[in-house]
Amino acid sequence: MDQAVFESVRYSVVCQDCDAELECWGVQALVNGRLRWDVESTCSTCGLAVAVCGGAVPTERRDQMLSEHGPAWLQVSTPPVTSVAIMRVLRAELGIDLMNARAVLRRVLDGDYSGTLPEMEYLARALRKSGIPAATTRP
């Protein structure tokens, strides 16, 4: 079984019960082959505690993770002969059409495709399952 990969961010929102500052911890994780976004929060004023599990990472929190942790890069070390196989995986995992898959493929082969660590590891594992040598790197 693959090891879990995760990144977290800390942020504040307004408590829905008392309007005080609510401290939140958000975690994007790759667990058992699935990406997930979990948030735990506790209000230090009124004690409201909330946990929300699953779902997609909000754009604002994804941007915060990239800013705080830096991007991870998807690296594929394979000859161009397997480009069709790479595009097949990208289309399936990213839910994109053929034209977008070609654009992503170019970026991947040029070493210019990045995202959060869990996102890039998710794609790297999918590529490796298809027999394509792939890795996630961070400078």
What is the name of the CATH architecture of the largest domain?
Answer: 2-Layer Sandwich
Strand order of the largest sheet: 1-2-3-4
**Number of helical stretches of at least 4 residues:** 4
The largest β sheet comes out as: 4 strands, antiparallel
Shape: elongated
Order of helices and strands: EEEEHEHHEHE
Radius of gyration (CA) equals: 18 Å
Describe the protein's architecture and organization.
This protein has helices at residues 59-69, 83-94, 98-109, 117-129, and strands at residues 5-14, 21-31, 34-43, 49-52, 72-76, 114-115, 134-137. The protein starts with a strand and ends with a strand. Helices cover 35% and strands 33% of the residues. The protein is α+β, with helices and mostly antiparallel strands and 139 residues long. The protein has four helices and seven strands. Strand 1 and strand 2 form a beta hairpin. Helix 2 packs across helix 3 (98-109). It has two domains: 5-69; 72-137, Ribosomal protein L7/L12, C-terminal domain/Adaptor protein ClpS (Ribosomal Protein L30, Chain: A, 2-Layer Sandwich). The protein has a four-stranded antiparallel beta sheet with strand order 1-2-3-4. It has a three-stranded antiparallel beta sheet with strand order 6-5-7, covered by helices on one side.
